[in-house]
C-alpha cells in the first residue's frame, strides 16, 4: 500500500508526528501551569521580603529560608500570630490519623455486614446509605454546630473525629469492591473451623479487602488533613494548642499587620510539605484510586 | 463430619451479626448527621440574632426568597442570599466549562492509540497534584502571590515590566477576584476530572476504536462519533457531581480575601450559610433556611445522578420491577 502511494503515507505519518509534537507542547505547558505556583512558593520562601517586594517573581531560589522561619518563630513568641508548624502538624496528624482509622475500619465493617449477612433490613439499610451519600456537609452544618454548642463539645476534637465512623460514600465503595472480589465461601469455611464472626472479619475480611482499605485510607487521610471547614466551625476559641494546620495558615494570611512576605511564603510552604510527601510516595496509587472510585471531597 | 457441621452452620441464623456489623455506622450517623439534618430543618423556622431561638414559622424563607419592599432587614437578607446564589452559579460555570474542555481533550489524547504519548503516568500525577494540596494553603498562596498592593509578587512583576501603571486589585476587585477563583478551582480540579474521564473512555469497548481505525477514521471523527456519544453517561454524571460539589464550594471563595472580611463578590451560598450561623449572635434562622433550600437543590441534582447510575443496571431494574408487578398481580 505504501509503495502504491508513498506520498500519501508519508504525509500521514508527518501529520501524525506534527500532532504528537503539538500535543506534547500543550501537555508540557499544562505541567508548567500546575507546578509553577508551587515552585514559586518554594522559591519565595527562600527569599527576603525586600527581594520579593522589589523584584516580584523570581525562579532562582535564595538562601533565606532559615531567616524566614526564624521570623515566623519571632511572631509566634511575640504573640502576633497563632502559627507554629510543629503544633499544627501534631494537631492535624491526631485528627487525620484517628479519622482515617475510624473511617476505614467502620466503613469496612459496615460493608462486610451488608455483603456477608442476610437480614431483613439489609436492602433498606443499603438504600438508605445510597440516598444519604450525596447530602453535603454544608447542609447539615447549622444543625450540627448548634447541637454541638448545646452539648458543649465545641473546642474539642470529638465532633471532628467521631462522625468519621459514618462515611456513606466509603461504605458504598467498599461494598462495591467486596461484591466483586470477596468469596463468601471463605466465611463459611472459617465458621466450620470454629472462627467467631468478628474474628473472621478481622483476620480474613480485612486482609482480603486490603486494596480497597489502602485506597480509602489514603484518601481519608488527605481529606481530613486538608479539611478546613469543620475544624474552623468547631474550634471556635482559636487557641493555638488546638489549631489544625490549614487554620494556622489562614491566621497568617488574614493578618494585615504582618509585612513580611518571605515569612508568609515560608509558613504556607511548611503547611503543604506533609501532603506533598504523602503524594510523592503514593502518587501512582492515588491516581489509580481516583480512576477507580471517583472520589470527590 | 464436615457435611454435618456444615448443615449445622446453615441452620444457624447469622442475621443478628449483620445488624451488629452495621450498627455503629447507623448509631453515629443518626447522632452526628441525621439529627443535625433534622435540627437544620427545625432551625430554619427559628428566630435570628439569638442563641435561645423562638419559632417564626416560614418567615426566614420569605425573607430569603422574596423581595420585601416594606421590610428593610428582610430585603437586605434577600439581597445577600440572591447574590450568594448568583455568585455560586457564576463561579461554578466559570470553572466548570474550562475544566471539562481541558479534561475531555486530555482524556481523548491520553487514550488515543495513534498518539504515542510518552510519560502519561507522569502527566497524570502532575496534573492531579493541585487537587491534593490543602485548599486553605492554595488560597493563602494565591492571596499572597496576587496581593492587591504594589508589593505583591505578580503586581510587582507586571509593574516592573511596565505592563500596568497601577497594581491590579486581584483580590478585592469584582471581576478580577471572580476570575481568580475560577482559575484556582479549574487548576485544582481539572486533573481529577481528566482522570475520571480517561478511565471512562478506557471502559469503552476497544474493538469500536479498532474498527474505526481500520475504516480510516481520523482522531477528530473518532472523538465526536465514538468517544463522545459513548461517554455521555459518564459525562452527565461528572456534570451533576460537579454541580453538587460546586454548590458546596467553600474553602477557596471563603479564604481568597484580604484580612478577615468576606469578599461579597465571591461569597458563595456555602460561605453565606457558614457566616450566618458562625457569628455572634448567630442567625440560625436564615442559615437554616438557606441550608434547607440548598438541601432541596442538591436532592434534585442527586436524584438525577442516581437515575444515571441506575441506567447501568437498567435491565436488572426492569426485571425486578416486572417480578414485583407479578407479585402484586398475584395479590
Short description:
The complex is a heterodimer of chains A (297) and B (331). Chain A is mainly alpha-helical. Chain A has 14 helices and no strands.
Tell me what you see in this structure.
The complex is a heterodimer of chains A (297) and B (331). Chain A is mainly α and 297 residues long. Chain B has a domain of 217 residues: MetI-like fold. The longest helix of chain B is centred in the N-terminal third of the chain and has 40 residues. At the A-B interface, helix 1, helix 2, helix 4, helix 5 and helix 6 of A face helix 1, helix 2, helix 4, helix 5 and helix 6 of B.
> How many strands in all of chain B?
0
Roughly what fraction of the amino acids of chain A lie in strands?
under 5%
By secondary-structure content and strand pairing, the structural class of chain B works out as mainly alpha
Number of helices, counting only DSSP H or I runs of 4 residues or more of chain A: 14
* Rounded average pLDDT of chain A: 88
Oligomer: heterodimer
How much helix, percentage-wise, in residues of chain B?
over 70%
Evaluate the radius of gyration of chain A.
Answer: 26 Å
> How do the SSEs of chain B run, as a string of H and E?
HHHHHHHHHHHHHH
CATH architecture of the largest domain in chain A: Orthogonal Bundle
So what's the overall shape of chain B? globular
Structural features:
heterodimer, A: 297 residues, mainly alpha, MetI-like fold, 14 helices, 74% helix, globular, B: 331 residues
Blueprint (SSEs and pairs):
The complex is a heterodimer of chains A (297) and B (331).
Chain A: H1 6-45, H2 49-55, H3 65-77, H4 85-116, H5 122-132, H6 137-151, H7 158-161, H8 168-181, H9 185-192, H10 197-208, H11 210-226, H12 229-234, H13 245-253, H14 261-293
Helix pairs in contact in A: 1-14, 3-14, 4-8, 4-11, 5-8, 9-10, 11-14, 13-14
Chain B: H1 2-11, H2 15-43, H3 59-65, H4 72-111, H5 120-132, H6 135-145, H7 153-161, H8 174-202, H9 206-214, H10 219-247, H11 251-255, H12 269-277, H13 284-312, H14 314-330
Helix pairs in contact in B: 2-13, 3-4, 3-13, 4-8, 4-10, 4-12, 5-8, 8-10, 10-13, 12-13
Amino acid at each position: 500500500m505504501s509503495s502504491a502511494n508513498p506520498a500519501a503515507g508519508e504525509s500521514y505519518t508527518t501529520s501524525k508526528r506534527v500532532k504528537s509534537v503539538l500535543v506534547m507542547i500543550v501537555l508540557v505547558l499544562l505541567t508548567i501551569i500546575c507546578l509553577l505556583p508551587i515552585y514559586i512558593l518554594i522559591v519565595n520562601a527562600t527569599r527576603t521580603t525586600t527581594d520579593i517586594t522589589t523584584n516580584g517573581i523570581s525562579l532562582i531560589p535564595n538562601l533565606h529560608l532559615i531567616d524566614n522561619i526564624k521570623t515566623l518563630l519571632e511572631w509566634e513568641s511575640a504573640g502576633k500570630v497563632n502559627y507554629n508548624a510543629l503544633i499544627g502538624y501534631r494537631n492535624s496528624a491526631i485528627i487525620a490519623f484517628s479519622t482515617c482509622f475510624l473511617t476505614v475500619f467502620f466503613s469496612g465493617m459496615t460493608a462486610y455486614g451488608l455483603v456477608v449477612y442476610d437480614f431483613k433490613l439489609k436492602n433498606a439499610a443499603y438504600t438508605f446509605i445510597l440516598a444519604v451519600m450525596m447530602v453535603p456537609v454544608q447542609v447539615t452544618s447549622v444543625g450540627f454546630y448548634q447541637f454541638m454548642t448545646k452539648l458543649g463539645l465545641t473546642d474539642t476534637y470529638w465532633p471532628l473525629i467521631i462522625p468519621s465512623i459514618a462515611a456513606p460514600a466509603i461504605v458504598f465503595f467498599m461494598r462495591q469492591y467486596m461484591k466483586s472480589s470477596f468469596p463468601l465461601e471463605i466465611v463459611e469455611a472459617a465458621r466450620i473451623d470454629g472462627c467467631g464472626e468478628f474474628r473472621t472479619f478481622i483476620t480474613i475480611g480485612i486482609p482480603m479487602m486490603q486494596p480497597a482499605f489502602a485506597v480509602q485510607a489514603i484518601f481519608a487521610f488527605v481529606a481530613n488533613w486538608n479539611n478546613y471547614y469543620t475544624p474552623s466551625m468547631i474550634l471556635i476559641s482559636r487557641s493555638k494548642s488546638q489549631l489544625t494546620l490549614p487554620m494556622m495558615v489562614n491566621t497568617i494570611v488574614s493578618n494585615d499587620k504582618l509585612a513580611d512576605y518571605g515569612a508568609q511564603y515560608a509558613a504556607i510552604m511548611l503547611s503543604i510539605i506533609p501532603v506533598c510527601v504523602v503524594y510523592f510516595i503514593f502518587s501512582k496509587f492515588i491516581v489509580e484510586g481516583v480512576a477507580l472510585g471517583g472520589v470527590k471531597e | 463430619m464436615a457435611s454435618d457441621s456444615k448443615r449445622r452452620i446453615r441452620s444457624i441464623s447469622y442475621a443478628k451479626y449483620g445488624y451488629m456489623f452495621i450498627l455503629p455506622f447507623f448509631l453515629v450517623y443518626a447522632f452526628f448527621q441525621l439529627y443535625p439534618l433534622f435540627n437544620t430543618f427545625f432551625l430554619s423556622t427559628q428566630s435570628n440574632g439569638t442563641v435561645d431561638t423562638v419559632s417564626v414559622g416560614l418567615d426566614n424563607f420569605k425573607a430569603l426568597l422574596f423581595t420585601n419592599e416594606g421590610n428593610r432587614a428582610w430585603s437586605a437578607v434577600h439581597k445577600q442570599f440572591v447574590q450568594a446564589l448568583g455568585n455560586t452559579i457564576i463561579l461554578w460555570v466559570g470553572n466548570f466549562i474550562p475544566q471539562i474542555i481541558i479534561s475531555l481533550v486530555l482524556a481523548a489524547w491520553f487514550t488515543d492509540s495513534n498518539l504515542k504519548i510518552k510519560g502519561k503516568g507522569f502527566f497524570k500525577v502532575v496534573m492531579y497534584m493541585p487537587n491534593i494540596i490543602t485548599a486553605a494553603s492554595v488560597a493563602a498562596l494565591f492571596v499572597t502571590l496576587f496581593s492587591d498592593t504594589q508589593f505583591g509578587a505578580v503586581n510587582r512583576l507586571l509593574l516592573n515590566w511596565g505592563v500596568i501603571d497601577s497594581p491590579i486589585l486581584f483580590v478585592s476587585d469584582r471581576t478580577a477576584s471572580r476570575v481568580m477563583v475560577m482559575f484556582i478551582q479549574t487548576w485544582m480540579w481539572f486533573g481529577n476530572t481528566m482522570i475520571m474521564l480517561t478511565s471512562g473512555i478506557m471502559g469503552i469497548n476497544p474493538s469500536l476504536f479498532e474498527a474505526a481505525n481500520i475504516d480510516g477514521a481520523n482522531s477528530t471523527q473518532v472523538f465526536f462519533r465514538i468517544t463522545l456519544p459513548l461517554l455521555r453517561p459518564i459525562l452527565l454524571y461528572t456534570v451533576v457531581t460537579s454541580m453538587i460539589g460546586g454548590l458546596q464550594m467553600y474553602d477557596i471563595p471563603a479564604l481568597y480575601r484580604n484580612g478577615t472580611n468576606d469578599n461579597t463578590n465571591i461569597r458563595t451560598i456555602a460561605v453565606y450559610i457558614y457566616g450566618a450561623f458562625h457569628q455572634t449572635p448567630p442567625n440560625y434562622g436564615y442559615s437554616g433556611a438557606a441550608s434547607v433550600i440548598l438541601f432541596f437543590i442538591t436532592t434534585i441534582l442527586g436524584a438525577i445522578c442516581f437515575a444515571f447510575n441506575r441506567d447501568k443496571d437498567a435491565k436488572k431494574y426492569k426485571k425486578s420491577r416486572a417480578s414485583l408487578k407479578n407479585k402484586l398481580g398475584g395479590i
